[in-house]
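Quick one, probably user error.
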């Protein structure tokens, strides 16, 4: 009982909660009110003749200073208890059953920490890797901008793209679910896939929701904004471009190269990738995405499929040049393991060199590595099952590398080929907090 009280009391007085700053005005207000009432009653209380019972209740047999202390104590107790019960009644409509006082204090503290802002984060990618990172980062700040590829052409997204001419909503759906306030329920709803029904089979509810919202809101970008507002997401989600681009790849097949069309077809070919590119080429960047990059404190690319999630954003020339021009800290998050059909047998440096090659456009070359830091997992304790045909990516780099490695434990110990979203976000924010003073 005593330990629970101490824990609750500690949370309510925790720095940054924003509670203590209002305790003093409350106390001053009560004192002023008490003085006003006291001045009004002073003469009446001192001059009137009271019946014996009322004299007993008013404690007139005691010295005045003792009576003052007793009345103050009773007043403070009644005020505090009334405020507590009033807040409890109001908050009951918004809190889960059996929520304790320490739970409420912790929720208020976390909310204020996120609202306080923190660094302006821009996260670039697509697929499940981006949503994994976002689901962890949202616990630290709401100052997040996700820039998402529009190259997806498989599954439900591909059907909607071909039939209705909308940008593929799949990766955006995953990001909305990851950033939603009630992630579990929104994820369950947005990822629900219809298993029957003419025209509905194979589609996810989230894709249909965004597509319908685009029709109602008048554009895809407005649909993302309105969807985020309706679902109270912690951050914002932007496409890297609004143009209808198709991702192509040149694959190495023996001594020849083979051209493959479509983001979903590239890893299915199971051949080494020489390069990927857009048709039509030179798509224009979405202006708010450029503005977010130029105003960012931290720019993060990945994790996710190198050729089909990360690089498609960087193929938009204005995105890459804005990243280089930005004064932000730039970090590439390398995958925990290789990806079949895309990065078989790749090292950390292979990932970085592929990014450099795809962002060194004709007539334009980087003066230095586009991403000055590369975050890589250094926990190799859990072995990846041999039948998955994956290799763990080791935290190694050549001596002449122009980037610096951030070696941290970010692996999901239950699925050692993936990132743990909480560990990844915690390590990333902890590293930036320690690095920031030296910048």
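Nope, works fine. Designed sequence:
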């Amino acid at each position: 009982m005593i330990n629970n009280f101490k824990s609750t009391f500690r949370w309510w007085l925790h720095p940054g909660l924003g509670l203590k700053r209002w305790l003093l005005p409350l106390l001053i207000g009560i004192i002023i009110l008490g003085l006003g009432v006291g001045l009004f009653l002073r003469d009446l209380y001192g001059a009137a003749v009271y019946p014996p019972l009322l004299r007993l209740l008013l404690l007139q047999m005691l010295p005045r200073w003792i009576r003052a202390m007793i009345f103050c104590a009773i007043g403070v107790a009644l005020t505090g208890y009334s405020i507590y019960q009033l807040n409890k009644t109001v908050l009951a409509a918004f809190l889960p059953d059996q929520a304790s006082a320490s739970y409420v204090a912790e929720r208020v503290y976390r909310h204020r920490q996120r609202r306080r802002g923190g660094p302006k984060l821009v996260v670039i990618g697509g697929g499940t890797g981006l949503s994994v990172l976002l689901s962890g980062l949202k616990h630290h700040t709401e100052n997040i901008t996700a820039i998402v590829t529009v190259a997806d052409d498989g599954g439900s997204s591909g059907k909607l793209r071909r039939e209705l001419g909308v940008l593929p909503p799949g990766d955006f759906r995953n990001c909305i679910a990851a950033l939603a306030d009630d992630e579990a329920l929104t994820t369950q709803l947005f990822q629900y896939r219809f298993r029957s029904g003419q025209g509905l089979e194979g589609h996810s509810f989230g894709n249909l929701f965004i597509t319908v919202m685009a029709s109602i809101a008048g554009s895809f970008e407005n649909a993302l904004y309105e969807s985020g507002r309706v679902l109270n997401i912690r951050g914002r989600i932007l496409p890297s471009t609004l143009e209808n681009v198709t991702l192509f790849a040149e694959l190495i097949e023996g001594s020849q190269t083979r051209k493959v069309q479509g983001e979903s077809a590239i890893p299915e070919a199971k051949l080494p990738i020489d390069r990927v590119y857009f048709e039509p080429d030179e798509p224009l960047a979405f202006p708010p995405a450029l503005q977010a990059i130029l105003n960012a404190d931290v720019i993060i690319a990945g994790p996710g499929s190198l050729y089909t999630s990360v690089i498609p954003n960087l193929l938009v020339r204005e995105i890459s040049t804005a990243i280089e021009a930005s004064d932000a800290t730039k970090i590439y998050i390398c995958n925990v393991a290789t990806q079949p059909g895309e990065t078989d047998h790749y090292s950390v440096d292979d990932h970085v060199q592929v990014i450099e090659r795809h962002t060194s456009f004709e007539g334009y070359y980087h003066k230095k590595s586009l991403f000055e830091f590369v975050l890589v997992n250094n926990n190799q304790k859990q072995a990846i099952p041999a039948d998955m045909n994956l290799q763990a990516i080791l935290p190694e780099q050549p001596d002449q590398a122009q980037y610096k490695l951030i070696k941290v434990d970010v692996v999901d110990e239950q699925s050692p080929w993936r990132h743990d979203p909480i560990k990844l976000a915690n390590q990333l924010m902890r590293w930036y907090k320690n690095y920031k003073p030296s910048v």
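Residues 20-47 form the longest helix (28 residues).
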